[in-house]
Amino acid sequence: MSGTAQIGVTGLAVMGRNLARNFARNGLTVAVHNRTAARTRALVEEFGDEGTFVPAESAEEFVAALERPRRLVVMVKAGEATDAVIEEFAPLLEDGDVIIDGGNAHFADTRRREKQLRERGIHFVGVGISGGEEGALNGPSIMPGGSAESYTSLGPLLERIAARAPDGAPCVTHVGPDGAGHFVKMVHNGIEYADMQLIAEAYHLLRAVAGYSPEQIARTFRGWNTGRLDSYLIEITAEVLAHKDAATGKPFVDVVTDQAEQKGTGRWTVQIALDLGVPVSGIAEAVFARSLSGHAGLREASRALPGPAARPLGAKEAARFADRVEQALYASKIVSYTQGFHQVRAGSEAYGWDVDAGAVAAIWRAGCIIRAAFLDRIRAAYDAQPELPSLLADKRFAEEIGAAQEDWREVIATAARQGVPTPGFAAALAYYDALRAERLPAALTQGQRDFFGAHTYRRIDREGSFHTLWGGDRSEVRSD
Hints:
Layout: E1 7-10, H1 14-25, E2 29-33, H2 37-47, E3 52-56, H3 59-64, E4 71-74, H4 80-89, E5 98-101, H5 107-118, E6 123-130, H6 132-138, E7 141-144, H7 148-161, H8 180-208, H9 214-224, H10 232-242, H11 265-276, H12 281-293, H13 296-302, H14 315-351, H15 357-363, H16 375-384, H17 395-403, H18 405-418, H19 423-436, H20 442-453, E8 457-458, E9 465-468, E10 476-478
Parallel strand pairs: 1-2, 1-4, 2-3, 4-5, 5-6
Antiparallel strand pairs: 6-7, 8-9, 9-10
Helix pairs in contact: 1-6, 8-11, 8-12, 8-14, 9-10, 11-12, 12-19, 14-17, 14-18, 14-19, 15-16
C-alpha cells in the first residue's frame, strides 16, 4: 500500500468516524483504521461516496497508507487507551511524523506524551475539539497545541475542516506548545458548565418566581437570542423548553430526572484553578450544582427543612422580572468568561505557552458549544489590549455590567427571599464585588493564621513579614 493518504484517523466511534468524514468531504484522502476491522469496513461501505478513504485493518497497513510527514489522528478514550494506541503506532513512525490526540485528554497527560515522543523524534499534538458529533462532521472549533513545526504540517488540514466564524475565518489556531490546546479546551468546557448553570438558574427563576410555563420561557429565550445573549446554548435551551414528551404530552423538562451528570472536564478546570490560585467561583459553583443535584438521598432527607416557598408574580410584575433576569444572566455570563480567560492567562504564564487570548476568543466564535455573538467583542478587547488584566477592565463590558447592577442585585435578593437557589448568579456577583472592594476581610484571616500557626503577615505601612507574639504582651517581631 503506497502512502497516498494526507491524514489518517484511528478510532472510528462516532467522533472519529465523523472527523474522518469531515476530512474526506473537504477533499483530503483519509486513511481509516479501527481496532475492530468491521467498523472500518462499515464506514467505507456507508460513507465511501463522500470522499476518498483508504481502509486499513492493521497498524502497519495504516501507517503505510500515510504520506510523509505522516499525520495520524487518535480518537480513542482518554487515558490508558490513548497511551496504548500511541505505543502501538510510535514504533512504526519516523522522525518528523505527527501523532494527534483529538480526545478529551487531561493537559498534563498531553505534556507528558509530547515530551516522551519528542525524545523519539515524533511530534505529538494535543487537539481540543469542540462541537460534539455534529461539529466533528460539519466543522468544529479546534484548539491544537504542540510544536510550531507540527502546526506547519497539520494546520492547513485543520483549517479545511474547522467551523467558519461569521467573518469567514476558520475557527482554529495554534494555541501554544505541548498541552496548551487541551488546557484551553478544558477551560472552554469549564465556561460551558458555568454558562449552562446560569441559563438553568434563569429558567428556574422564570418558572418559580415569574410563574411562566416552559413554553412561555422558550419564547422568552428565543427573544433573548435575538439580542446580546445570542448564542448556541440560548438557542438550544429554547428548543429543549419548547419540546413536548411524545409519551405523555408533558413538557420535556417535567419528565426528565433533575440530576445532572458530568464527564470531568469541568471538575478538572476547578482543580487546576486551585493549583494555579485562580478564582473561578462561577465555574466551581456550576460543578458543585451538578454534584448536589445527583445526591438524591440527601435532597430527599432535606426537603422538609424550613424556608420560604416561591410565590409567582402577577403578569405585569413577571414581565418586569424577566427583564431583570436577562440583565442578571448577561452580567453573570461576563463574569464567567472573565474567570475563564483569567485561568487561560494564568496557565499560559505558568507553563510558558504565550497563549493569545484574542485568538482563543476568535476560534470560539463558531463550531464550539459556547459559541456566542459577544465573543467577537471579547476578541476585539484582547486584540486592542493584549495585556488586558480582566474583561471587566474593558470599557464597554464595564459599562454593561454597570448598567445591570440594580437588576442583578434585585434578582439575587428576590431569589433569596423566595427560596430559589441561584449559586451561579450569587457567585458571579460576589466575585464582582470582591474585585471592586477597597478592603477585603483577608486581613482578619491573616491575623487568625498568625495566631494559631505563626504563619506571619505583611503590613500596609512597611516592608517585610511580621509575627505577633499572641501571649503576654503581644509584641510584634519581624520574621524575615
